[in-house]
Amino acid sequence: MAQDAGVMSSVDEGALHALWRSFAMIIFSEIGDKTFLIAAILAMRHPRLVVFAGAFASLVVMSILSAELGHLLPTLIPRKWTQTCAAVLFLVFGVKMLQEGREMKPGNEKIQEELKEAEEDIEEDEAVHDGTGIVGPDGEEVVPLEAIEAGRATGHVRRRSSGAARPASPRSAAKKTMQSYAEAARNFFSYLLGPVFVQAFVLTFLGEWGDRSQISTIALAAADNVYVVVLGTVVGHSCCTALAVMGGRYVSTKISVKHVTLAASALFLLFGVVYLYEALLSIDPETTDFHPLS
Fold first, then answer.
1. What's the per-residue H, E or C state across 280-294?
2. How far apart are CA 43 and CA 33, in angstroms?
3. Which region holds residue 194: left if phi is over 0, alpha if psi is between -120 and 50, else beta?
4. Rounded to an integer, what distance in angstroms lies between the CA atom of residue 107 and that of residue 123?
5. pLDDT tens, 234-284?
6. Do residues 97 and 265 lie in contact, with contact meaning Cβ atoms separated by under 8 Å?
7. Bridge partners of 133?
8. Alpha helix positions (H), 104-193
9. What pLDDT digit, counting tens, does each position of 98-107 carry?
10. Which residues of 12-21 are buried (b: 16+ CB within 10 A; e: fewer)?
11. CB–CB of 268/88 below 8 Å?
């Protein structure tokens, strides 16, 4: 009984640590990020509750997909090696963020650049789907009218749907087919859930895909309990998204991206050391051959 109680206590402690790690990782990675600013800008133009629902639903789906992907790794390679890979990943991210933070200037200049990029993404998305865009010089990119008027881009004065059709290559034809299917799916869900919800969902999902927080979620799920990691990331995303829609633009003018990046760097380095320590503890010296060539 005492042994079982000790095992349960260690499991509970490990789950608590995993929950804290995933929550802290999301908080330090997402505040001031592009997806944070996208939610803040959309909340200024549309009902906040709808924007929150769309962005949060997207982040929940992303968290589940990333955690499941990380959960598959221990079935392919031993857990001690997944913990080692997670340690290396967090150490690399920590060093890179430390370098980025040291090179950043004090103030909110960096976050203003992110804010501008977020606004351009929203303008381009709206230009594509409400017909207010102009075809760019390459004939593919749709440039918002706001960008033309502001002198940020040039384009031909014609609608995207107009113009004589040129012979299309098989690759471009397949791309247009995929785009038509995606457009049809988006129109269906816009009719079902509302265009604002779908816009917040799509922009958040695209902005989060391949982001540092997604890769970190995969690493956490590979090294810890997948359900606890999902819970921690979802709670962290809910806090960040709620803060973004309630007053994200104001918060973005008050925080220093340099300080947030340096704090996140310290956190990622700490995670890397912890996972490396746990990986070393999981190695059994009696069954491991440290001299395979002898």
1. HHCCCCCCCCCCCCC
2. 16
3. left
4. 26
5. 999 999 999 989 887 677 677 777 888 889 899 999 999 988 888 887 665
6. yes
7. 144
8. 109-130, 145-149, 170-193
9. 998 888 877 6
10. eeebeebbeb
11. no
- Give the tens place of pLDDT for each residue, 19-63: 998 999 999 888 878 888 888 888 888 889 999 999 999 999 999
210 dihedral zone (left: phi>0; alpha: psi -120 to 50; beta): left
Q: First and final CA of the chain: distance in angstroms?
A: 44
Q: Where are the beta strands (DSSP E) in 58-170?
A: 133-135, 142-144
Q: Is the distance from CB of 21 to CB of 224 less than 8 angstroms?
A: yes
| Range 77-90 average pLDDT | 84
Q: Which of 266, 226, 260, 212 is nearest to 89 (CA)?
A: 212
Q: Which two tokens stand for residue 168?
A: 């299309």
> How many other C-beta atoms are found inside a 10 Å radius of the C-beta of residue 195?
18
Which of 97, 25, 114 minimizes the C-alpha distance to 259? Answer: 97
